[in-house]
Amino acid sequence: MDEAEVNFELPPELRMLKESVRRFVDRELIPVERESLVQNRLKPELREKLNGAVAELGLAGFDVPQEYGGLGLGLLAKCVVWGELGRTIALPSRANDLFGPNVSPILYELNDAQKQKYLLPTLDGKLKWCFCQTEPDAGGDPGSMRTTAVRQGDHYVINGVKRFITEASDADYAQVIAATDRAKGSHGGISAFIVAMNAPGVKLLRQQELVIDDRPWEVAFEDVRVPVEDRIGEEGKGFRHAQNWLSVGRIRHGARAIGVIERCLELGVAYAKQRVTFGQPLAERQAVQWMLADAFTDLHQLRLMVYHAAAKYERGEDIRVEAYMAKNFGDCRSFAAADNCMQIHGGMGLATDLPIEKMWRNQRSMMITEGPTEVLKMAIARHVLHAYG
Q1: How far apart are CA 149 and CA 181, in angstroms?
Q2: What pLDDT, in 10s, does the model give residues 222-263?
Q3: CA distances from 11 to 14, 16, 18, 268 (A)
Q4: Which residue pairs from 136-139 have beta carbons closer than 8 angstroms and sit at least 24 positions apart in sequence?
Q5: What angle do CA 249, 323, 374 make, to 5 degrees?
Q6: With pLDDT > 90 as the criterion, what percentage of the chain qualifies?
Q7: Is 97 in contact with 91 (CB distance < 8 Å)?
Q8: Are 104 and 252 in contact (CB under 8 A)?
Q9: Is 282 helix (H, G, I), strand (E, B) or coil?
Q10: Which of 12, 102, 300, 371 could form a disulfide with 97 if both were Cys (CB 3.0 to 4.6 A apart)?
């Protein structure tokens, strides 16, 4: 390979984007981050103020393709934005719609009639959605999914229970992943459907209290009739749709973790220089120095992993393994950075005056959602055993 083909630096336009978003975070978000949310939602008066700042920043709709009126940023550019936003706890950790309607990538794969019915109204802010895959007995193992969709003429009948469904109470429709052939499992036996949340048989069972701000729902589907035209793609291809979305979602985990580690370094270094114990600043203690050195090394590794995966994705290459690694490494090491940052701050690290305790809780939760650490390692190991066998 020609040495000139390897470039580890962001292009100038993305460096400018990074600096612009950082200024926005520092000026608009960090100063209000401990009082910006009520039950994981932006306060209305703050949202109105921030909407103007987002418009001035020029990033409204950055996650929406150009053909649908958005900026159509590539994945690498989006990773830059996500990384900078990860430095603050001012925004919801999930279902953040400050920069425009929250749109699932699956919706862009709909057919023309479905796009008219669901995608375009979602982009206009007229409809909201939720994603229903996780079940009480099938979280990291979708092949054991018990929710079934049985075809009866021109309808499917869906039965089952989904758990940890974010935004279910506000959603107009759900993207439901269900088994159409349980014998095939995730290898051709899972399909995806759009289901109206007000359809007969759809029931919100209970809202789950978590250690994080998100309050997801448990949702039951009891003999819910769904027209065949509301199936997403071909029967048996639902797992592929979900996994395509999750690959990008896992890269987003890694990108967000970049911001978390960087903020923990900012806070940890500032406090270590300020706090004096036994006649010396904490910054002169080797134990503290090693915590900071580890976080800095992790930050460098993670940034390279995420940017490399995003660049491969933009070239149209398969990034499943890179996404597994970026999410696993990013979530685990950002949690370690938050944990060490908390330790450096001592009792103040536990206080809600600072963002550390919330970063600590959020990053611990990220090690479970969209692929638990152990499941991702299993998938990485399968790749290694095949690649080097």
Answers
A1: 8
A2: 999 999 999 999 999 887 766 777 889 999 999 999 999 999
A3: 6, 9, 11, 30
A4: 136/161, 136/163, 139/163, 139/164, 139/372
A5: 95
A6: 81
A7: no
A8: no
A9: helix
A10: 102
What CATH superfamily classification does 129-232 receive? Butyryl-CoA Dehydrogenase, subunit A, domain 2 (2.40.110.10)
Strands of 233-274 (E only): list them: none
By C-alpha distance, which of 310, 259, 258, 256 is closest to 10?
310
- Burial of 50 by CB count in 10 Å (0-12 exposed, 13-18 middle, 19+ buried)? buried
- Tell me the catalytic residues: 370
What's the CA gap between 94 and 39, in Å, rounded?
A: 12
Token readout for 292 is: 């900071």
Summarised one tens digit per residue, pLDDT across range 115-160 is 999 999 999 999 999 999 999 877 667 778 899 999 999 999 999 9
Predicted confidence at residue 3, as pLDDT, reads 44
Residue count (the chain): 389
pTM beyond 0.90: yes
What CATH superfamily classification does 3-103 receive? Answer: Acyl-CoA dehydrogenase/oxidase, N-terminal domain (1.10.540.10)
Question: Has domain 240-387 been given CATH number 1.20.140.10?
Answer: yes
The domain segmentation of the chain, as residue ranges, is: 3-103, 129-232, 240-387
Residue type, 19: E
Q: How far apart are CA 144 and CA 13, in angstroms?
A: 45
